[in-house]
């Protein structure tokens, strides 16, 4: 490619920089990337220096046609310069990222387009600030490299990818202040107006260290945020700054928990401590705001849930808080025939987009540290630290998880430490190469709690062999390549069968219970009735004065709750007459979905959620009663993607239900169909969305009472919330109250 660059002008600009930079002559000769820059200052006749090495201002230039996410090698990944140098470099001197970027550019930009001129950023403010110049330079050079030979990387192209390792942010603010947020997190720094005097600046840096200090994880304390590193460039300040963090816990609402525990912030000027507890904290549910007055160039803060003491029956601080656990699935940028997915548990709710993995093994040998991408994440409530069982299952017949890696355990003691816990799962290819979907299931071993979610892998790596081994004379030949057709991942949904449930536990009613006011979810029964129990797990209902426990039972084809004290549990062999307690799988899913007949929903939200989460339109169409549908029933707009076909099926069912409103209910029939193909995670998500919306609609006009009693807001806080939402007549509209 011919570049429209005035090389002589760029060299002149570089020499001008060498004269204005205050520490140009003191560049370290030990750094191979900048050794010749220092030499050029002494020998201005040297015409053979790399332009990218000589001109550090190119580090901050942005190319408008750049589509690569990371830089690699000695030269930065500015497309036009990379392509010019790559034509002269042998295959042995290119990094894997070079090859992958070239493939991506050819695949995504088949037509040659003239390079765009770069525009230099305004960096004059760096010329007289040695420390700022050095930090800006280092931030652009902070890269990690995987040093694998070409043979290894051609077999496993997903391993060697050059990525930035640390996620941090630096922002320059003037006297007007502002806010700085760490990317992909709920960690913010608020700088008020007048923090520095007019004419001065403040550089604020934020960084999250994933493993918090271990001294705050014990019976009385548990960290609920990462260790936060805060840097300031200017200590000539007038106002304090505020740290705001959304943490992974909130104190329970009962009076004992409110008295015995609190969310607190510990602060230190050193990473290793000592830490002191800050008093200037304000906590609202799971968000804490801390006022920082003792400012330094480098500071560290960590948020923890702390108990004054443990009062039985409580055993640790977890008994006083609602604690959420965040998990992330990490993997390589591209998948290949054999790859590793890493399941990671965090002791806080900050899940970084990239994670450095140091303990990968392949063929019995340890691999160099690699940077994995975040493929999927999930957050769930865990009442207390306990053993977890993790299993990954491929939903595609072309891939499998190795037998020894299909199920792994995480110990209770590991969760108590508050540090990252990782488990590796090795996938291998059985058929064709394409992206696919797998299921992640988390089981709490000491209870029946089960969480699951689906993860979609990235695309396969582009083939490197054609570029690495291609003769030089063929590199300059114009080629027209058609984009490869990616195979749609197929999930084998189970075929629903209407069978009679096998019940192992029964209960005999000890008294007659008939209610004058009928309640749908409570069973009515006569003394001596035999009630089938769907397991021996109990549902706890916590009231004002006492806690009631219920079994989930079946009687006369109805599922409902029966009070534990009203039945005597017996085995299957002891049951005499079980005819009234028989239940089929069809009756079961229909009974589970009954509440959806009365729930409020937003059709567009349901449509988008289902179309994104169901991967086989035929399976959904069959359980909805449209097994006769074929591809000919779709128009061109719906025939391209699987999600569009699923959406078309849902729309078809919606139209049919609307035409027969008296007999058919859209949401109810959709939930029954999803249960029949075992989409439990999707049903749980729709349940949550519809319950929240229904509750908001029902309780919208009582929001003042709810805010006062549940959220404990004062009347002044309630009025302050209403003011921005008041209409011309001073009244808050109902739809505003709902949200």
From TrEMBL:
On the tree of life, the source organism's domain of life is Eukaryota
The keyword Transcription regulation appears for this protein: yes
Task: Supply the alphabetized keyword list.
Answer: Activator, Cytoplasm, Nucleus, Phosphoprotein, SH3 domain, Transcription, Transcription regulation
Q: Which residues constitute the signal peptide according to the record?
A: none
The protein's name in its UniProt record: Metastasis-associated in colon cancer protein 1
- How the protein assembles, per its UniProt entry? Interacts with FASLG.
Q: Where is the ZU5 domain?
A: 167-304
One Pfam family in the UniProt entry: UPA_SH3BP4
**Where does this protein chiefly localize?**
cytoplasm
Domain called SH3: residue spans? 502-572
Provide GO CC annotations from the record: cytoplasm; nucleus
Q: Does the keyword Transcription apply?
A: yes
Give the location in the cell.
Cytoplasm; Nucleus
Originating organism: Podiceps cristatus (Great crested grebe)
């Amino acid at each position: 490619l011919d570049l429209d660059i005035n090389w002589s002008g760029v060299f002149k600009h570089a020499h001008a920089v060498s004269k204005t930079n205050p520490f140009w002559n003191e560049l370290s000769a030990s750094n191979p990337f900048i050794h010749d820059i220092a030499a050029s200052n002494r020998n201005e006749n040297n015409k053979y220096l790399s332009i990218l090495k000589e001109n550090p201002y190119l580090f901050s230039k942005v190319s408008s046609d750049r589509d690569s996410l990371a830089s690699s090698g000695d030269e930065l990944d500015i497309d036009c310069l990379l392509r010019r140098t790559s034509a002269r470099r042998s295959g042995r001197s290119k990094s894997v990222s070079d090859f992958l970027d070239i493939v991506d550019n050819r695949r995504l930009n088949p037509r040659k387009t003239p390079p765009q001129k770069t525009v230099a950023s305004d960096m004059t403010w760096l010329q007289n600030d040695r420390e700022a110049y050095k930090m800006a330079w280092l931030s652009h050079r902070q890269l990690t490299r995987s040093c694998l030979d070409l043979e290894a990387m051609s077999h496993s192209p997903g391993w060697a990818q050059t990525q930035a390792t640390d996620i941090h942010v630096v922002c320059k603010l003037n006297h007007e202040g502002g806010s700085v947020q760490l990317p992909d997190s709920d960690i913010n720094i608020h700088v008020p107006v007048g923090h520095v005097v007019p004419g001065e600046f403040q550089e604020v840096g934020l960084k999250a260290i994933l493993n918090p200090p271990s001294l705050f994880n014990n019976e009385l304390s548990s960290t609920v945020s990462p260790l936060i590193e805060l840097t300031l460039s200017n200590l000539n300040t007038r106002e304090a700054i505020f740290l705001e963090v959304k943490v992974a816990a909130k104190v329970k609402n009962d009076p004992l928990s409110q008295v015995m525990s609190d969310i607190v912030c510990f602060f230190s000027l050193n990473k290793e401590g000592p830490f002191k507890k800050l008093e200037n904290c304000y906590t609202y549910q799971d968000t804490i705001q801390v006022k920082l007055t003792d400012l330094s160039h480098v500071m560290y803060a960590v948020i923890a849930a702390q108990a004054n003491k443990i009062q039985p029956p409580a055993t640790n601080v977890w008994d006083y808080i609602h604690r959420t656990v965040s998990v992330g699935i990490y993997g390589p940028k591209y998948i290949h025939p054999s790859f590793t997915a890493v399941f990671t548990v965090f002791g806080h709710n900050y899940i970084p987009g990239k994670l450095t993995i140091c303990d990968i093994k392949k063929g019995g040998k340890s691999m160099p540290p690699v940077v994995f991408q975040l493929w999927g994440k999930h957050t769930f409530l865990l009442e207390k630290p306990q053993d977890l069982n993790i299993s990954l299952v491929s939903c595609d017949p072309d891939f499998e998880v190795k037998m020894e890696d299909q199920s792994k355990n995480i110990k209770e003691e590991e969760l108590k430490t508050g540090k990252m816990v990782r488990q590796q799962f090795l996938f291998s290819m059985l058929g064709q190469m394409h992206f696919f979907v797998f299921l992640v299931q988390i089981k709490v071993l000491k209870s029946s709690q089960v969480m699951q979610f689906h993860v979609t892998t990235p695309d396969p790596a582009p083939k490197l062999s054609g570029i690495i081994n291609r003769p030089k004379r063929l590199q300059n030949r114009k080629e027209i390549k058609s984009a490869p057709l990616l195979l749609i991942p197929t999930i084998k949904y189970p075929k629903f069968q209407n069978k009679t449930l096998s019940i192992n536990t029964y209960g005999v009613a000890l008294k007659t219970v008939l209610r004058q006011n009928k309640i749908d979810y409570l069973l009515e029964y006569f003394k001596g009735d035999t009630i089938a129990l769907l397991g021996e797990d109990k549902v706890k209902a916590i009231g004002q004065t006492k806690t009631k426990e219920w079994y989930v039972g079946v009687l006369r084809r109805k599922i409902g709750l029966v009070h534990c004290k009203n039945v005597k549990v017996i085995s299957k062999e002891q049951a005499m007459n079980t005819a009234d307690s028989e239940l089929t799988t069809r009756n079961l899913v229909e009974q589970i979905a009954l509440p959806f007949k009365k729930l409020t929903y937003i059709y567009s939200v349901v449509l988008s959620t289902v179309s994104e989460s169901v991967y086989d339109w035929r399976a959904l169409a069959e359980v909805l009663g449209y097994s006769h549908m074929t591809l000919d029933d779709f128009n061109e707009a719906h025939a391209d993607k699987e999600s569009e076909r699923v959406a078309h099926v849902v729309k078809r069912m919606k139209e049919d239900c609307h035409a027969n409103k008296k007999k058919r209910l859209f949401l109810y029939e959709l939930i029954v169909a999803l249960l029949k193909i075992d989409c439990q995670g999707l049903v749980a998500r729709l349940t949550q969305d519809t319950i929240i919306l229904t509750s908001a609609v029902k309780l919208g006009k009582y929001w003042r009472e709810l805010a006062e009693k549940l959220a404990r807001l004062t009347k002044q806080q309630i009025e302050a919330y209403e003011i921005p939402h008041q209409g011309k007549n001073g009244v808050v509209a109902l739809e505003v109250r709902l949200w």
